[in-house]
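Format notes (please read before filing issues)

Several people have asked whether sequences and structure tokens are stored in separate files. They are not. Every record keeps both together, in the order shown below: the sequence lines, then the token lines. Line labels are part of the format and must not be stripped during preprocessing.
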Amino acid sequence: MGKLRQEADAQRTVEESSRIQRGYGHYFDLSLTNDDLERTFGRLREAMEHLRVQPQWVPVTWVY
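Then the structure lines:
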């Protein structure tokens, strides 16, 4: 029973992730899939470094 529940939970997670990506994906600059922890962590660090050194744009209404 435990394995079936884990598979059902994983399937729900995949479906929910797909729904979120379809509905809100245009708001994000990067999407990470954790299929390899080292590689995913490296991509996250690269993205954070890019944010640190590159100028960012935000709407003026967010500032004032």
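For reference, the curators noted about this record: The helical segments are 2-24, 37-53, 60-63. Residues 42 and 48 are 10 Å apart (CA to CA).
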